[in-house]
Amino acid sequence: MAKITFIILAHENARHVAELARLLTGWSEDAHAVIHYDLKSSAAEFAKLKSEFSGSSRVHFVNDRIKCGWGDFTLIDAVVRCLRLIRKERIDCERVMLMSGACMPIRPLREFSAYLDAHPHTEFIESFDSDWIVGGLRKERYQYWHFFNHQTQHTLFNFHYKIQRKIWPKRKFPKGLEPRFGSQWWCLSWELCEKILDYIASRPLVYFFFSTTWIPDELFFQTMAFHFTPINNLARRTLTFFHFNDWGKPLVFLDDHRDLLKEVPYFFARKIGSRADKLREDLKAIALGPIPEKPVEIDLTSRYVFPYKKMLRDLPKAEPSASPALFQHRHKSGWSDVLEKCSKSFGILYGPPQLTRRALAVLANVEGLTAFGRILNPETVDFGSGVTAFKGLQSDDNRIRDMDIPYYFGRLLSRCEKLPVFELCPGDDPASEIALLQSENAIVMPITPGNDAEIMQQLYWILCSRPQIESTVVADTPIATFRSMLKGVDRSISKDFRDRTETFLGTARMSKATTLAQWRSGLEFRHGKAVIPLANAFEDALGAVRATSIEDIMVGMPEKWRQTISTLADYDPNWKILRLNVPVELPELWTTSMQLQALALSKLGKGNAA
């Protein structure tokens, strides 16, 4: 069997990292694991992780750890430190497999070892020319200096890049090397790894050059492998399965992806969801199992094309850009494609959470409806009061959801046997609001002030933005506090967006059905019998909203807020739910604002190029 050392780059969930290290070293006495645990992560977790392997001679830790960042050279340096540790400790290995803490084997490890033995001269690393890059910067990744992290120092990164394009000469690639690109994840021979260590030891300036490139984890090892390896010995793919959508967001594998992983011709997969406990247990059993009678077939001569499943199959492709852009931006058809594939009707309670939640409390008890909370809440996936999970989806999936909101929404709809109804607060995610409010599948029920008084419109927006502004409102008197609230609204939700929303609500008031019978008849014609429970419960939900008092709205608010808002009782505030039979046409500026921004960026790029 091949002697394999696994390098694990990890930054969270020490328990999963420990389980992975035990799994990767437990199948063979010749298997080792070298772990780089991000310096940004908890020191206590790292200490706990080390203590679990204090007596092990086959699980090793990099002690001179560094803080790693997305697209940063630290991802290269962390791996190099692991390679240096392998050399220093004289770990006997023939192959080095690079993994993350979110990776898992998806086939038996003994089969993986046998496969490596069958391809002794093959280096499993992508090493392509710049056409490998789907969209965004290509040669600019190394022709210009990149000192700032794109995610944490976005403004500085963009400014520095644009200044260089205007006034700075382009850099040449290091002499004797040809730039090659590919996935960060690879499996290389130890012989090649030693050549790379020797190269950077003798050419520190070349190593520094790569430290000032952008996304060097897709450039450095790929260039080194191409330099030292005959091209026929370079596989055109890695042995780790992963999938990014066209906006650079990775597919996270959950419990219900088990069948998908059975079909892909790879030995490992990333990213396995932190809550996919059942999937992890299944994969552990598979990893320690015997070599199957039918071995995996892998075509090393071509890149693997992931056969899209269900909605993934039809996600829109990124459009080429005439001038370099940092990223390709998501096209709004992502929503339309998902809604077309999952054509289930759904209800939307659109308005401030304090009011939508009262209506939803009524609908939650109605047979024939599935009531959710604010599923687009920026802080959490809100499935409703006291509900933390729904058929495998978790309330703390917000980061997974935000990677591809349309796809996540489609998954949620596909699991609803009854008519789903959910809350949507203006400003939760403007791009998603555009798609949802105009969807032919949507039954939109806006909750608005019962009168047109300006102060009620102001209260509407204060309630919509309360979580974002609550900590910023500081004043002594009710009037000063109210003014501070309005300033907070201005900071958190743009006036442009508020104006468009109010135009939409004004149009909705004119478009609403005049009677409950008309509304019900129109809904049944468009959505079928599934809407009957919603129509029957509408009056009760409307009554709950109308009965909402100032005291109800003030529940849970800070004392100064309550003192201020209590003065509005003199205005006799009331609320209503509008009944819409058809999607209301959104203001044109709302639907074109992002296109105008993209056009402006495009013109800026052309001006720079000129």
Structural description of this entry:
The structure is a single chain. The chain has 610 residues and is of the alpha/beta class. It has 25 helices and 15 strands. The chain has helices at residues 14-26, 43-52, 74-88, 109-118, 140-143, 154-167, 190-202, 204-211, 220-228, 258-263, 277-287, 333-341, 353-363, 398-403, 405-414, 430-437, 454-464, 466-469, 478-492, 495-511, 516-527, 532-546, 550-553, 559-565, 588-609; strands at residues 4-10, 32-37, 59-61, 95-100, 104-105, 187-189, 240-241, 268-269, 346-350, 369-374, 389-390, 393-394, 419-424, 442-449, 575-577. It has a 5-stranded mixed sheet with strand order 3-2-1-4-6, sandwiched between helices. A 5-stranded mixed sheet has the order 10-13-9-14-15. It has a 3-stranded mixed sheet with strand order 5-8-7. Helix 7 (190-202) crosses helix 8 and helix 19 (478-492) crosses helix 24 (559-565). The protein starts with a strand and ends with a helix. The model is unreliable at 308-333 and 588-610 (pLDDT under 50).
